[in-house]
Predict the 3D structure of the following.
Amino acid sequence: MLILGIESSCDETGVALYDTVSGLLGHSVHSQIALHAEYGGVVPELASRDHVRRLLPMIKALLLEHGRTVRDIEGIAYTEGPGLAGALLVGASVGAALGYALTVPVVGIHHLEAHLLSPLLARPAPDFPFVALLVSGGHTQLMAVEGPGRYQLLGETRDDAAGEAFDKTAKLLGLPYPGGPALAHLAGSGDPGRFRLPRPMLDQDNLDFSFSGLKTAVATLTEQLGADSVEVSMRDKADIAAGFQEAIVDVLVARCARAISQTAMSQLVVAGGVGANRRLRERIDAAGKKAGFRVFYPPVELCTDNGAMIAFAGAMRISQGARGALPFNVRPRWELGSLSAIGR
């Protein structure tokens, strides 16, 4: 089957074509960074309007690029949630309208399930079961994954997600939007040992996370440094960024290692936008080698939001008989644990 995937949960418009025999044919993503940069964050209404402008031309261009027509589409998957309600509605309405016109199955996909399964698009790919770290701007969770649709929550953030903490800290340091990647880049030139920042909940005997206190520590530090000068120097900012990143990575790596030990699993999957962070990958890979577990990531271009992961998750569900119902649905809030298992 040829599956069209549509992603529109936030500020990336993504489309993809996935063939259940030959795999991913291609995908394209339009980022709205430039659109939202002057506001310092995503403006939901602007995001929705841009999805309206982009989606159909992107689908047409992708089909043309791979020598297919709209009539070749045999199934459609769209992001049902979680995400921004208006943005989700754009992708859902386009997917449902095409599905109705073509009389093909249409399924809504959980955004986090798509991220979680995206490492299966890489080579080598993990086998089930595995522990998954979902780490992005909106989520930081550890899951035990027995199979598609069979997920057990092991731990999650009690406040800010890791990516959210990156973005907020970048704003404190006066870095440009999007803050997370800018902070990670600046950290590469800093000294992570100069400022000792807290590692929230690191010594607690659980698998939860908390990053708001770390962000507060950075705010306090910048105020102290700025008291004797007009502004914090770029050297100070680089060292703060490096120390902040190291603190986040310390916590994530320790929690992953503990989850592997507690579940007695031998594979770890890291997915989500923060999974592209080089320092995080270095440290988790090193921890895996030391403790004897394997680590898997999606291709770097599939770490952030994209249509490929939606098409792949949709192909798995459609091939097992899943069929969407009209009218279509969106869920701005949606618990991953509520999903039905695939293949049962």
